[in-house]
Write a structure and sequence with these properties.
Elements (H helix, E strand, L loop, with lengths): L1 H14 L19 H19 L5 H24 L9 H15 L4 H19 L10 E6 L9 H9 L1 E6 L14 H13 L4 H4 L3 H14 L4 E7 L3 H5 L1 H11 L2 E7 L9 H14 L20
Helix pairs in contact: 2-7, 3-4, 3-5
Length: about 300
C-alpha cells in the first residue's frame, strides 16, 4: 500500500524532473532472510543521495546522531518500564506523541530533544519514588492498540480522568528497542534498514499477524493490563478483517476489549463524542461502572477545532 501511494507521487515528481528514490523496505521484517535485501536498499539510497547532491554521506554526523538516538531509546524504555508497576508516570498522549516525534522526526539530530528526555526522566523518577499517582483513582490498566485518531489526541487523558482507565502504552510507541551501532559503518547499514522496516505503525501492520495480533496479548501480560482499547479505523481493511480474531483472543486471555470507531483524519465522519460514547456504553453496560468524573462523560466539542 505504501509503495503504491509513493509510486503515484514518484511519477508526478519525475515528470517535473525531480529525482526520486523509493526505499522498498521488506514487509516480513522479523525474518533474517530479508535483511540482506533491506541493507542493499539502504546502500542504493545513500548512493542515490550522493550522486544527486554531489555530497558524500557524513558518517561522523550520523554516528553523533545515533549516540543521541540510543540514549533517547533508553529513556523511552525506562518510562515504559515504570508503567509495569502501580505507579506509571509517562503514559497516554504524553508517551505517544513524544515517541512519534523523537523516533521518526528527530532521530537523534537535535540535542534539545535529548535534554528534554533527561528532564522528563528526572521528573518521572522523582514522582515514581514518591509513589505519586496521575489521577485520583485507578480502575483499569489498558493497552492502546491500532492507529490512533489523530484529530483527537486528548482521548487518552480523557480515559484517565473520566473512567480511571490508564492508557499505559500504545501500539505506535512499541517500536525499536535495540541499540544501534555508534561506530561500525557496515553494521550501521543494517541498523538503518531495520529502523525503516520497524517504523512506527509499519512494525505492527506488516510482518504477519504475529506482530499485530499475537504480540498484543504478550504486552498485556508484560504490563499487567486487564483491558485493551482498540482503535478501529473504518477505512483500515486489515484491522477490520481481524475483528473476530481480536475478540476471540481477548476472551481466551480474559481481557476486556473496547472497540473505538474512528476515521483517522476526519472528525466529520465519526466525531469526538461518538468516540467517547463507545467507551461510555461499554463501561456502563458491560463493566457496570459509573464514571469517576461524570462531568466529562459528555463534552461540548463545538470549539474543538
Amino acid at each position: 500500500g505504501s509503495l503504491m501511494g509513493n509510486g503515484i507521487m514518484a511519477r508526478a515528481y519525475e515528470r517535473e524532473g525531480i529525482p526520486v528514490f523509493q526505499i522498498a523496505a521488506p514487509l516480513r521484517h522479523l525474518e533474517e532472510g530479508v535483511q540482506e535485501y533491506a541493507a542493499q536498499e539502504i546502500r542504493n539510497a545513500i548512493r542515490f543521495i550522493e550522486e544527486n547532491t554531489g555530497h558524500k554521506w557524513d558518517w561522523d554526523n550520523y554516528f553523533t546522531c545515533m549516540k543521541r538516538f540510543n540514549e533517547e531509546t533508553q529513556h523511552r524504555v525506562s518510562w515504559m518500564e515504570m508503567s509495569r508497576t502501580d505507579f506509571p508516570q509517562v503514559i497516554g498522549a504524553n508517551l505517544a506523541l513524544y515517541s512519534e516525534t523523537t523516533y521518526m522526526a528527530i532521530a537523534g539530530r537535535v540535542q534539545d530533544f535529548l535534554e528534554a528526555d533527561r528532564r522528563i526522566s528526572k521528573l518521572a523518577k522523582e514522582s515514581f519514588e514518591r509513589k505519586e499517582i496521575l489521577v485520583p483513582e485507578y480502575r483499569h490498566r489498558a493497552i492502546i492498540w491500532g492507529v490512533q485518531s489523530q484529530y483527537y489526541t486528548d482521548f487518552l487523558p480523557w480515559l484517565q480522568n473520566c473512567w480511571g482507565i490508564l492508557p499505559l502504552v500504545d501500539m505506535l510507541s512499541l517500536v525499536y528497542f535495540d541499540k544501534v551501532s555508534e561506530d561500525d559503518k557496515e553494521q550501521a547499514i543494517y541498523d538503518i534498514a531495520k529502523l525503516y522496516q520497524e517504523m512506527i505503525m509499519r512494525n505492527r501492520t506488516h510482518g504477519g499477524y504475529e506482530v499485530l495480533l499475537d504480540d498484543l496479548w504478550r504486552f498485556c501480560e508484560y504490563y499487567n493490563a486487564d483491558m485493551v482499547i482498540l482503535w478501529e479505523h473504518i477505512s483500515c481493511k486489515a484491522l477490520d478483517g481481524m475483528h473476530g480474531l481480536f475478540e476471540e483472543r481477548a476472551r481466551e486471555h480474559g481481557i476486556k476489549l473496547i472497540w473505538v470507531n474512528h476515521d483517522l483524519m476526519d472528525p466529520r465522519v465519526i466525531g469526538r463524542q461518538a468516540i467517547r460514547d463507545d467507551v461510555n456504553r461499554y463501561m456502563r453496560s458491560v463493566m457496570q461502572e459509573e464514571p469517576i468524573d461524570p462531568s466529562l462523560e459528555i463534552l461540548d466539542d463545538e470549539n474543538a477545532w
